[in-house]
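Supplementary material to the annual report.
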Amino acid sequence: MDNFIKVLIAKPGLDGHDRGAKVIARGLKEAGMEVVYTGLRQTPEQIVRSAIQEDVDVIGLSILSGAHSYLFPEIMNRLKKADHSDVAVIAGGIIPEDDHKKLKELGIKAIFQPGTPISKIVDFIENEVQK
Amino acid sequence: MEDNIDQLYADIQRGNENTIAKAISMVEDGTKDAVKLMKKVYRNIEPAYLVGISGPPGSGKSTITQSIVQLWRKENIKVAIIAIDPTSHFSGGALLGDRIRMDKISTDRGVFIRSMATRGSLGGLNSSIYDTVLIFSLAGYEYIIIETVGVGQNEIDIVKLADTTIFVTVPEAGDEIQAYKAGLMEAGDIFVVNKADRPKSEQMVLTIEQLVSFRGDKEIWKPPVLATNALQDEGITDIKKSINDHHIYLEEKDLLQKNRREVIRAQMINLMEKKLNEKFISPILKDQKFFKHIELICKKKEDPYSVVNELLSL
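Predicted assembly:
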């Protein structure tokens, strides 16, 4: 019996930069995870539906546009409504520290700033999934 | 426990997406409940019509898949897509990126997209792929598309599951096509030259037509070679029509059931290999003794043939 960790890397909203998301996707793959990457400009509806159909353990949201305070609550609400709150949601990109507390209250498990080593993210995910 | 399985079965049949997705994961992970579920599914469910799409990376498989699905959706046909990408032999991980090109159908309630990694640990086809086909069939999807990158034996084994296999290529493939001759060229029922607005597409169509015309039997299906431009939605109706024609051909010649017996045969072999690996080979690989033998073979003190016989008590 195998137990693979499956992660969805998603870019919500109008944000055309996915270098970071791709680096993370590749890094997690190298760490032995199965990574679904859905591409640019995803709506909260698309992200939640992908997470359900793919049955991922973790959703990684990458955002640089500054719209996280609008998009993240929408995503978390939709997950709740779809009875899919057991998935761990983490975030990365340009997210000012002032906003972290509020986002964590929404249920976002971790927020990784630019410069975070991939190994730290890998460790976090492995710990989170084992719980 | 049996009640749980019945409940799971009923929820899948009702089309509950959360349950379908969880059931596929169970099958992928090979849980005990998954085996119980699949026992019931195999005894009750006829598979939906299965279309395989294969071709080199970047040839437009996902875009074509999306366009065909959009046509079927206009007729209110429910479609499931299994998008398969290779598992890395080095890390065991996989990058599953087929959803990127299926953006237009990703929120359609009548479409279910599932990405899967090949995972085949010790060679052989991952048996959970066909089990996933049956789970989608139970859930009422009328067409199921399996999409794979067209390289390697593993992928050919996957396309062989399909009732209709579409092989997609591009005009520039040129001589590369020769390499496919002994592989996917033989497995294709429909050939598509995508990005046909580019130079040399007619030449490519002719090359493939010549290749497939060498197939012996005159009475059998003559694979159409279609020129498409998937980004502009050109030629997609031709693919849809050819799938339909091939389906009718299989029904008329009584070949659909024959193909499906072949699939069950392959699935049986997969399951036997899996069991043998689990029961006999995997424990040996984990045993310290195994590493010692490798050392001794490298030091010319032993040879692999004798050791294998010893390890398997043959």
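The first strand of chain B starts at residue 49 and ends at 55.
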